[in-house]
Amino acid sequence: MASNWSRPEKGGKRDLASGNRNGEQRHRQQPRDDAIPDSNGSRAARADSGFGQLRRVWERLGEDDPFWAVLSDPDKRGGRWQADEFFATGKLEIETQLAAAAARGLPQLRALALDFGCGVGRLTRALAPHFQRVIGIDVSASMIAAAKRLNADLGNVEFRVNPATHLSGIADSSVDFVFSHITLQHIPAPLALGYVGEFFRVLAPGGVAVFQFVNGVDASWRGRFFGSLPTLALNMLRRLVWRRGTVFEMHPMPEAELARVLLRHSGLRVLDAWDDFSAGPGWHGRRWYVTRAANVTETRRASDRNNPC
Ligand SMILES: C[S@@+](CC[C@H](N)C(=O)[O-])C[C@H]1O[C@@H](n2cnc3c(N)ncnc32)[C@H](O)[C@@H]1O
Questions:
Q1: CB of 89 closer than 6 A to ligand 1?
Q2: Between the N and C ends of the chain, which has fewer C-beta atoms within 10 Å?
Q3: Looking at the domain covering 14-306, what would its CATH class be?
């Protein structure tokens, strides 16, 4: 589906094992129960064990070659991304997304933005000129250490390690722009659905949540190939192609389950849902734009703005 909301980046090198294309691999209240959506104990336990593995993988990737782990262009493996070139890709992505949101008059306020799965702050940095305050969250301490080092010049940005399946450090209804890009696609679906529930919990009235995810493979030979193999077999292939022991995984998130998470939260509306190509060839992606009705008074919002977390 064509989209002026979600513009795929054109051209670039492709990496068979990830399907990535040139860079795009590519409170106050307690969090809701859907932070781990399975009420069944054993399923929750499985989700937790997936989380431990996820942390270890991204910890290691952030130590080894963080720019390439974020934007997996094969030509850039081994520390060959230039920082200015790398961060320029983030500026383009954020300007595109903010312009599309602004065309809808959203977000109504620009007090607080949240970048979920911020990596080394490629997109967090690009959000900084547009919001009073930006929080970048990542599961990987090594990624966050690099983000702090690379963005030390920014006064309105905070980076947090979040070794959890929820976002309990962020207050309900406090974030004007929730953003997540090429992150949910790496998280097992039960966990990813929980995080999306958290995006909805923290979204402020008049705010917008923009998040990309993968919902399956496409009809190309690559897609059919990816779809025919279990994750363990794909991981072996990735280890061979990338010549490294630690590899990230791709995890499709069923859109129907996402819709069920949305229904558990009141006052939300899906503005748009577009096909997205950020994950690269072989993978079929989507990008959702969700807003919360601005049903509170300006006085209330002003008080939230002064005390967002
Ligand atoms: C491909 S990188 C994308 C980084 C950033 N969004 C960008 O586009 O520049 C994926 C990031 O998601 C982070 N991540 C993976 N699982 C996560 C989780 N459960 N919670 C927060 N961050 C996570 C990884 O550590 C990694 O930094």
A1: no
A2: N
A3: alpha beta
